[in-house]
């Protein structure tokens, strides 16, 4: 059973379990997709029913970030572990490399997916890169066809939320891939265009603050975090009353 946090249902999994389930989905028939909502995406889902449906329709919904963990705990239904999308992706690629599975990288600005592909091929020996495409296309169908023609097992869909979740829900099956993962800005990190916060900040649940200092323009988006905590408080009171 999923843990509900303001209308988004999260799978209560550790990182290792999430990667195991990802591999199981990859090895089963049909198309499956993974969403990695953070508090900002949960807030977005409260306002946008189509986004909420696409996120909740995922085969795996992973708690990306400390805010979701805190929210679930405040509601009295704690989640066991946070599973940041980017760490899930690295765990999955390590397993895929062992099995010589193939990966398509979709999203980010032109050139970023190619740079990410080069780095990932070097880092995960055995991983096949089936193809890449930037995230600024007008027409979806040629992109869907390119993925299908590539024969990719897995697609990292990095178009930002909720675009990536809506895209996976709509086109996942048509791509012919078995697993699609919505991973936001991860290609920028894999390409070396953006850095993750150093370990200290991550370990102390402060990655959001580090990113804010690096990119002050994110402030408007980040104000969603206090709003999320206020909404969790309200929900808690409602449940108690
Ligand atoms: N993006 C894209 N196509 C679009 C809009 C966004 O490929 O039409 C990319 C954007 O270049 C960035 C990613 O989607 O690489 C979203 O990154 P963001 O930092 O918003 O994601 P987060 O990691 O915070 O979820």
Describe the secondary structure blueprint for this structure:
Blueprint: E1 3-5, E2 8-10, H1 15-26, E3 32-35, H2 39-47, H3 49-56, E4 60-61, H4 66-74, H5 85-98, E5 102-107, H6 112-123, E6 128-133, H7 140-150, E7 154-158, H8 163-171, E8 179-182, H9 186-191, H10 199-203, H11 207-214, H12 219-222, H13 224-240
Parallel strand pairs: 3-4, 3-8, 5-6, 5-7, 7-8
Antiparallel strand pairs: 1-2
Textual characterization of the structure:
By secondary structure, the protein is of the alpha/beta class. Helices cover 51% and strands 14% of the residues. The protein is built from 13 helices and eight strands. It has a six-stranded parallel beta sheet with strand order 4-3-8-7-5-6, sandwiched between helices. A two-stranded antiparallel sheet has the order 1-2. Helix 1 (15-26) crosses helix 5 and helix 3 packs across helix 8 (163-171). The chain is globular and about 55 Å long. Bound molecules: uridine-5'-diphosphate. Uridine-5'-diphosphate binds next to helix 9. Residues 107-109, 135-136, 158-161, 163, 184-185, 187-188 line the site of uridine-5'-diphosphate.
What is the approximate shape? globular
The counted number of beta strands is 8
- Low-confidence region ranges: none
Q: Report, as a whole number of angstroms, the end-to-end distance.
A: 24 Å
Biggest beta-sheet profile: 6 strands, parallel
Secondary-structure element series:
EEHEHHEHHEHEHEHEHHHHH
- Count every helix, treating DSSP H or I runs of 4 or more residues as helices: 13
The SS-based structural class is alpha/beta
Strand order in the largest sheet: 4-3-8-7-5-6
Q: Mean pLDDT, rounded to whole units?
A: 95
Question: What is the subunit organization of this protein?
Answer: single chain
| Rg over alpha carbons | 17 Å
- Helical content stands at 40-55%
Strand content: 5-15%
Bound molecules: uridine-5'-diphosphate
């Amino acid at each position: 059973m999923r843990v509900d946090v303001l209308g988004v249902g999260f799978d209560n999994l550790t990182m290792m379990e999430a990667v195991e389930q990802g591999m199981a989905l990859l090895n089963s028939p049909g198309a499956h997709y993974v969403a990695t909502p953070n508090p900002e995406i949960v807030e977005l889902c409260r306002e946008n029913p189509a986004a909420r449906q696409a996120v909740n329709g995922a085969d795996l919904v992973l708690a990306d970030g400390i805010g979701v963990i805190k929210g679930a705990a405040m509601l009295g239904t704690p989640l066991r572990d946070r599973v940041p999308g980017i760490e899930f992706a690295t765990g999955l690629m390590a397993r895929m490399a062992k099995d010589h599975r193939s990966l398509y990288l979709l999203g980010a600005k032109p050139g970023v997916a190619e740079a990410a592909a080069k780095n990932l091929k070097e880092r995960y020996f055995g991983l096949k890169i089936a193809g890449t495409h930037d995230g600024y296309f007008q027409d979806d169908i040629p992109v869907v066809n390119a993925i299908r023609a590539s024969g990719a097992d897995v697609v990292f869909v990095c178009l930002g939320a909720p675009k990536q979740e809506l895209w996976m829900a709509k086109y996942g099956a048509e791509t012919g891939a078995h697993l699609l993962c919505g991973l936001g800005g991860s290609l920028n990190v894999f390409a070396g265009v953006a850095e993750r916060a150093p370990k200290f900040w991550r370990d102390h649940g402060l990655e959001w603050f580090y990113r804010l200092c690096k990119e002050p323009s994110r402030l408007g988006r980040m104000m969603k975090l206090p709003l999320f905590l206020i909404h969790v408080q309200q929900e808690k009171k409602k449940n108690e009353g």
